[in-house]
Amino acid sequence: MDLQSLSNLFATTLNPNPNVHKAAELEIRKVSGHEGMLVALLQIIASDNVDLATRQACSVYLKNCVGSLYFIDPARAHPDQRPIAPSDRAALKSSILRLLADSPSRSITVQLASTLKSLVSHDFPGKWPELMGGAQQMLGRSGECNSLATRLMSAYRRPHSFCQKEDILPQIVAELFPILVNIASQLLSSPPAGAEQEIPAILHLILKTYKSSIVLNLSQHQQSPESLVPWGRLLFQVVNLQIPKEAVPEDEDERERSEWWKAKKWAYGILGRLFHRFGNPSQLPSTMKAEYGAFAQHFVTTFAPEIFKVYLQQVELYVSGQAWLSKKCQYQIFTFFTECVKPKTTWALLKPHFETLVSTFVFPNLSFTTSKQELWDTDPVDFVRTSIDEYENYSSPVSAATAFLLQLVGSRTKTTFMPILSFVNTVLASNPAAPQRFGALNMTAALGPFIMRHPDVKHNMPQFMSQHVLSEFSSEEGYLRAIACEVLGTVERADITWNNEENMNAHFRAVAAALDDPQLPVRVQAALALTEMVSAHEPVRAVVAPQVGKLTIALDLLKLSDETDLDILNNSMESMVEQFQDELLPVAAQLTARLCDSYLRLARESLAQEENAPKGGDLDSLIQADGDDDKTYAAMGVAKTISTIVSSVDSSPEILVQVQEVVIPIITFTLENKMLDLFDNMYELVDNLTFKTHEISPKMWPIFELTYALFKSDAVDFLDEMLPSLDNFVSYGTEVFKNRADYRHMVLDIYTTSITNSHLGENDRVNGSKLAESLLLNLRGHIDDALQLIIKTAVDHIDGAETSSLRLANLEVLVNTVLYNPAAALQLMEQYRAGMSRQFFDKWFAAINSDNHLPRVHDKKLTIVALCAAMEMDPAAIPEALKDGWPGIVAGALRVFKDLPKAIAGRKALQDALQEEAEDYASDDDSRYLNLNEDDEDVWDEDSAYIEMLAKEGLRLREQSEKRTEDDAESEESDDTDIDEELGYISPLDTVDPYFTFQQALTTLQAKNGPMYQAATTSLDVEQQTLLMEVMRIAETQQGGENGTAQA
């Protein structure tokens, strides 16, 4: 087809008549895939004689074609897919840079840049080594730098996604970045005439490209003065740039989004990243010191002081009203100042200025601003959501200012704490305007945990509350009433000790009254504060209890939650449920019904948002649409509260059944609508309900059927979430399973699918093996027809497991088959593969005789009772391959008995340790907040230690991965200690006494197979004979169902 005809076809696809453009699309489909098609498209896109709309249509088709056909995954290939011809590939790579440079419109540029990304990701560098030379040549041509830089950077801005190996990224950096920094510097020093609109966009993309290159690593070239000096000079030039008012929009929100301020934001971000990750020697993880230690020392002494000086100048200009700073730039400045607190070198620079920065830069950000007032008036729900989540908003100057404040008082307590508190008190004592009073109290709320742990200050807090906070509950300004509630909630959470009961009661009455405040943000903060007071004070609980029993408080919280969809209010509801279990018991079903109504509303709204969301799109658009997840997160919170109610009413089976009837419909709705994000919460509810009731109600069985259908379709990778519920269905629904072959088949199919599905991982296979174990333990005598398939599946994978967890889980499936029916299991192994029973026993006894291959109590008990089952076999049923080693079964059981008491003691120690850890966490060590032993040296705190731990763990995992690749056998041994006790796992074997079981089995062996008994017992050495006598003695003492200290 000639160019003109092809161009006309693409023009016709824009025809408003659907029949016409559909016909054109069909014609294009006929010629697509033919060699030369893409060459023709490239010529049309490059032709100035073709209208822009047609050229854009061709560029879109080109992007889609390259994205789907340049590389075709053989595992997902379709018969009608034809790969792009080699001649078209060559034409693409030879033309794409020139097309980008000459692109006539942004819309075409976007499509071509996406095409280039696809080419780069698949062919560079191995199949496209000339790309670098072509890019260098074109970037170096005068007159083309501006246009090509703008277009090329979007394609080069993803180097870290494909260049972490083979030193590709350092090559790109060393060859292209000197050209980029030169382009940017020339644009600022000698801007070309008529390029005013293009300059900030080019700067923005060049700086964004540099930032992308230093996310993980800093190349040797970038560490060298040859790179650091020119880039540093450029970054300082951009930061110091005074942008003329006429060059940016007047509206501040639009100004924030302008290209000039985007460029400045990236300049700040680069300087911060260089210091935070690579240039701060006191906080540099030990794993990075060899590569970056020298650079960090140079940076912190030479470069960081210049950054601090420039940033301080920018702050001074901003606070004096001489210059404007965008919010994101303020955020970056605060973040850098925060990083300067712990290193002694930068602390020496910051120390003389911290009080000024707090009073002139931090305090205004924490005060009540006109933008906050506007949001309060126009959208109080969004105000609440924003204010509560603001500390976690990673672009908000308020969050960064707060983090800076907390870093000052936490790391440099002796120097900063009292001056900052003095500033707060001075502000409040001067009776300032309401916005400034809000700022001082906002600082108090932020510092509350620190104040309540400082030995010289915490006892003064009740007086501070009565003097400065209590009166604000009756303020005319709603935001002051709200911050008063927040301060109260903060000090209560930090365990304030009231100087007298009347002071506490006065604050309680004030916050209780605030629950009826006309302003929504006040009611929300009052609810949070009241929750803290209820948790902390018995007198408050006694007063609130009657209202809880009438559902008054709970319904108020529900109403607030429905108005705001805030997860934090669900936390308050959970706390109320935990505090008032007895009072809520009679109305638990009613409260649960209301919560289920809220959940369904949120779930439906989330579904509606998902249906209305634009399909496809790039990553940026998906991130911007992330706000739609609010409904989902709120629904998660409601589900968690329902789960808390289920846990709180387990003492009353009748109430629990009523609650279950109310909850089942929301579980069904969620699963039927495949709301995958909520599956974890729903299966937690199913697990709780089935476990607490110890039975499966008739209405719960459809959920089992739905779970199986989901596993076989959309939720195949949710077995981890499903497993506890599936185990409960098997454990507590055994009578139904005995009578329903289809249900048994479903569980068996889940097991085999989890083992054989190539898309699932080893953790899924472990979970599947646990489910098979549940079948074998709970349905003994009722799954004879499934035994062959279970054995075949496990045998096929007995040598294929990469992790010790899966090796053990798969082995124990076979061990369970021996326990289920030893004669049938061993016979089926031999039928499937000759000698298989011996191979299985060899692996089993290798685990028995090792020190840690049966690490858990359950592993040891299972092995003992399975060996006991084998001991009781009819001698004629023992496979020929096992007869010579059969006497060793007794010694094997004794070997496990030897380690059993130690395993039980270890599990008990783990339980105690977890309990102690929970108590320690609740006590909240003061050293986490304050550094009272401070000097002016480097500070190494919990955060520093955490980063160090992450770095070491990352290094360990990388080395382990490399080691596994190099030597699978060695790796197999290295991870055998990774299996920990599963304290929440409940098994039918928990009630089995292994000592008494062994005694009975040994007696049976003696009666059925005297010669084998004789061989087994006479072959024991002295230590084994002594152990045998001890096991028999313990068995004697535990007969009659008594549980001794040795039983798990």
UniProtKB/TrEMBL annotation:
Q: Where in the cell is it found?
A: Cytoplasm; Nucleus
Gene3D superfamilies the UniProt entry points to: Leucine-rich Repeat Variant
Q: Please give the PROSITE patterns that the UniProt record associates with this protein.
A: IG_LIKE (PS50835), IMPORTIN_B_NT (PS50166)
Q: Which segments constitute the Ig-like domain?
A: 462-498
What cellular component GO annotations does this protein have?
A: cytosol; nuclear envelope
The biological processes this protein is annotated with in GO are:
protein import into nucleus
Q: What is this protein called?
A: Importin N-terminal domain-containing protein
User: Per the UniProt entry, what species is this protein from, by scientific name?
Assistant: Bondarzewia mesenterica
